[in-house]
TrEMBL record:
Pfam families, per the entry: ABG_transport
Gene Ontology biological-process annotations: p-aminobenzoyl-glutamate transmembrane transport
Annotated organism of origin: Aquisalinus luteolus
Keyword Transmembrane: yes
Superkingdom of origin: Bacteria
Protein name: Membrane protein
Length: 539
């Protein structure tokens, strides 16, 4: 998609500055390498100045709190660690394993045609008055399908709107807003959760604030479901009340009819059969995991972690019994996507034997080539940040500074949402941004009483809303081509202007949701509260 042709830049003002400045930025991989160089220099300066902070949870043998001092990354120990532990630093980067495992299954579901057929089936027969919300909902859920949401649903939405006598660009806008503006909204965790919580876990581990904290990729489930419920009427309102009336009645033109191919054709009998088989496979995996969880031996529940009598005394949290279940969800999504994709492919004829299945899994790994390079750079940045102790020191001093201002928790999270949205205009990769921000933000917010799950939730709100207005977004040229199929003179400025109302209202809605969630005190997911209490200090 990076090679897709683009219209000549037409942006002016702030968006023009964003486009011009962002295009001058190096690739995110090299951003990490440059930051590592800067980090080495900063660590030397902080080490020479004796920069330090008191660890909030560790107590030394003398009974006094442990003082954490800045460590020079050019020390003998760190130089040796860098070269000797390089393979381990890379392969032990938490997001890497999570993403690779989930994508092995998701790659089969995508390449077998399951995702594309499911999205087409979901939106083709929607009533005209419900066409916008159905497209928006399927777009948000379609984020599990990765690229398929962009390359299948968005052009299909234009076709369906045109067939219904509506402006096709309004359909493209609604689908783009759902897939990209509602990037984190969904009804269930998926690949993105595995990616983000892997980075969150690395940040918590590096801070040494809570050695017992375990990443739970379902830790934002309720929150992303809330985003879906809120974003759906927002996209519906903006599309039908603000965008489509401005577009006016579609007068024809463009060459969409000649270029969109089979996107508007009904599903074949084999594809329908494949969807039925995939549904049975999904139900079978769910039942299997219920058996693993609630069978007499309860393999996915560790009843010894917090026995009933200890829990009754208030000496442990009963939710810790569920840690094996939460940790198993990565494998669960791998099996679910794999089983559903295989079942669909076998029935639809896209998977003829086990070699086809293996080839699809291998192709999915090929698509992750760039991510592996990015993960290598990010893993070493995060690791070296932790070796220098600058992450924890910055978190402690940052938390103290924020506490002195008296900012309430909701306001603090709103500021993080806005900051993330601004950064997103320049660095589009969700993993790159979170790898940069998490080593400081996660421990700092833990010190302020906000859980790692809460920090992750606030980040993903800001990461979503501005996706659809930055020309640096990787799919922006592709969406522009989809629009030009219907209106040849539709330029980059036209696309940005069309998507700005979505971005504004999604940001307002996301901020309101974050503020409300903190105020009400609802859990973000099973076993995941917004608030957090540091473990008791121990030697």
């Amino acid at each position: 998609m990076a090679d897709a042709p683009t219209a000549a830049p037409t942006q002016k003002g702030f968006l023009g500055w964003v486009e011009k400045t962002g295009n001058k930025l190096p690739d995110p991989v090299f951003i990490f390498f440059y930051l590592i160089g800067a980090l080495i220099v900063i660590s030397l300066i902080c080490w020479a100045l004796g920069v330090s902070a008191t660890h909030p949870t560790l107590v030394g043998e003398d009974g006094n709190p442990v003082v954490i001092s800045a460590v020079a990354l050019l020390s003998g120990d760190n130089i040796r660690r860098l070269w000797v532990d390089m393979p381990e630093t890379f392969t032990h980067f938490h997001p890497l394993g999570y993403v690779l495992v989930v994508m092995l299954g998701a790659g089969v579901a995508e390449r077998s045609g399951l995702f594309a057929s499911a999205m087409r089936a979901a939106v083709r027969n929607a009533p005209k008055f419900l066409l916008t919300p159905v497209v928006a909902l399927v777009a948000m859920i379609g984020n599990h399908a990765a690229d398929a949401g962009y390359v299948v649903l968005i052009p299909l939405a234009g076709v369906l709107f045109a067939a219904a006598g509506r402006h096709p660009l309004a359909g493209i806008a609604a689908a783009f807003a759902g897939v990209s503006g509602g990037f984190s909204a969904n009804i269930a965790p998926g690949q993105l959760d595995a990616l983000l919580f892997g980075i969150t876990e690395a940040a918590v581990e590096g801070s040494s604030l809570d050695p017992n904290w375990i990443a739970n990729i379902a830790g934002n489930t309720y929150f992303i479901q809330g985003m879906t419920i809120l974003f759906l009427p927002i996209i519906w309102f903006v599309t039908d009340v603000m965008i489509e009336p401005r577009l006016g009645k579609y007068q024809g033109g463009g060459d969409a009819a000649k270029t969109l191919g089979d996107e508007d054709k009904p599903l074949t009998s084999d594809q329908k059969k494949g969807l039925s088989f995939a549904g049975f496979a999904v139900m079978a995996v769910i039942v299997l995991w219920l058996i693993f969880t609630f069978a007499p031996t309860t393999p996915l529940i560790d009843e010894t972690a917090c026995p009933a009598d200890v829990a009754a005394a208030g000496d442990c949290n009963p939710i810790s019994n569920w840690n094996p279940f939460f940790s198993s969800l990565v494998a669960a999504f791998f099996i679910l996507f794999l089983a559903a994709g295989w079942a669909y492919g076998a029935a639809a004829g896209t998977i003829k034997n086990h070699r086809d299945l293996v080839e699809m899994m291998a192709d999915a790994m090929k698509d992750l080539g760039y991510y592996l390079v990015l993960a290598f750079a990010a893993a070493h940045f995060v690791a070296m940040f932790n070796w220098s102790n600058l992450g924890l020191i910055s978190a402690v001093h940052g938390a103290n500074a924020i506490q002195s201002t008296g900012l309430p928790m909701p306001v603090l999270l709103v500021l993080i949402v806005l900051f993330t949205g601004l950064i997103n205009l320049f660095v589009g990769s969700a993993s790159a941004k979170w790898a940069l921000l998490a080593p400081v933000l996660v421990p700092m917010l833990m010190l302020l009483g906000i859980s790692p799950e809460g920090a992750t939730a606030a980040y993903r709100v800001g990461d979503s809303a501005t996706n659809i207005i930055t020309p640096l977004m990787v799919y922006f040229p592709l969406i522009l081509i989809f629009c030009q199929r219907w209106q040849k003179d539709f330029g980059l400025g036209s696309l940005t202007a069309m998507m700005i109302p979505y971005s504004i209202w999604l940001m307002i809605g996301g901020i309101a949701l974050t503020f409300f969630w903190v105020w009400v005190g609802w859990p973000l997911g099973p076993g995941a509260d917004m608030t957090y209490t540091l473990p008791t200090a121990a030697p």
